[in-house]
Amino acid sequence: MLGEYRITGKGASAIAADIESAVGSGALKPGAALPPLRELAQELDVNPNTVAAAYRLLRDRGVIETAGRRGSRVRSRPATAPRDEIRIDVPAGVRDISQGNPDIALLPPLDTALAAAAAHHALSPALYGGPPVDADLAALARAALDADGVPAGPIGITSGSLDAIERVLAAHLRPGDAVAVEDPGWGSTLDLVPAMGLRAVPVGVDDDGPVTADVARALRGGVRAIVVTGRGQNPTGACVSAARAAELRALLAAHPQVLVIDDDHVHGLVDLPLHCLSGVTEHWALVRSTAKAYGPDLRLALYTGDAVTVDRVRGRHRLGAGWVSHLLQRTVVHLWESGAVDPVRTARAYAERRDALVRALAERGVVAHGRSGMNVWVPVSDETGAVTGLLQRGWAVAPGQRFRLASPPGVRLTVSALTPRDIHPLADAVAQVLRPAGPGPGGSGRFV
Length: 448
Prior knowledge:
The strands form 4 sheets. This protein has an 8-stranded mixed sheet, with helices on both faces. The chain has a 3-stranded antiparallel sheet with strand order 12-15-14, with helices on one face. By secondary structure, the protein is α/β, with parallel strands linked by helices. Helix 4 (111-123) packs across helix 12. Residues 437-444 have low confidence and may be disordered. The chain has helices at residues 12-25, 37-44, 48-60, 111-123, 135-147, 161-172, 187-195, 212-220, 242-253, 291-294, 307-319, 326-338, 343-363, 383-392, 420-434, and strands at residues 64-66, 72-74, 95-96, 155-158, 178-183, 199-206, 209-210, 225-229, 259-264, 284-289, 301-305, 375-379, 395-396, 398-399, 410-414. The radius of gyration is 23 Å and the shape is globular.
């Protein structure tokens, strides 16, 4: 069952630590079945309840998964091996369009904004006991949310979108609860959910967002939460349409106990309207990041939600990190007030590259998707072959395995670094790699 490895330990914590260490070192491989409770208890000369407690700890940490009578096994992707470790070595001379970073030429310089934040700090330094959210930033954020039709709610701040999503999930869910997630979807979310001891339920995606029938099936199955990307979905570029939002809101209205999280991480670089699902259920949150429009190292995300959710997240945040640096908050205030980023220009720049690539691929008989954001998703029949073939032709792309649970294979192409001269050579390379197998699945526009 475990090969030559022998689990050790007497207490639950010691047994769990030994197994987790073995998984991290590779001594226990993903998918390895763990001994039944009584069998391991007998081998270690401990009470079966001790082993059961150890397995619960490991499940809550995202190291193993349990399936009742079918036993426990190491997760296929333990929390110690996140999806962003699925990468390829990029040789010299190969164009890397796999990373998902924004175009640095479209990011604003931060020197003036940081200086303004420092000057504000000199006059009014943030101290212990002060408000966690800068009043000017909260007012600006609320005005932008109002303009996008997001329901009224208090404003909170975290260190990035994923930080907010994790805190909102933790505010309402417990290990073992099910969460509906997009598939294909953001790899970090697909890692986070099981790492929290939650169960990920894949929901298919097409160009208009989560597939209504799949969401209905997940709701009937008892999911406690759903995470939806409203626009610029990573990796597919999907954008929730008004019609799809209406369908999903009608479904969710019949399940008011379900937690809804809207992820608007691409705010500031898309020109399609936001059709959020927030406000139709009792508990909800909408998360809006500054990373894509202002720079990944500006670790700040704003969120709003119902009063209970925001109060729980703020309270737990206060006991840990305390608050997000007011220097960062004032930096964002200056960037917003000064108009350092022109969202129309930025959105147009990404749209021109993305649309040109999708058109060029279509001209070559290759199905590709990318309604919004900075990525194009190309369904393939052989993911490894596609990645290897493109690498041989001078292009490094992201393997779809980073973003999938049950959906068919594909590759993600990030357009941020592309110039007009790159479009046709890249499209030629993709067509050359895929032509022997045809365009692959996904011609209907659905990625599942």
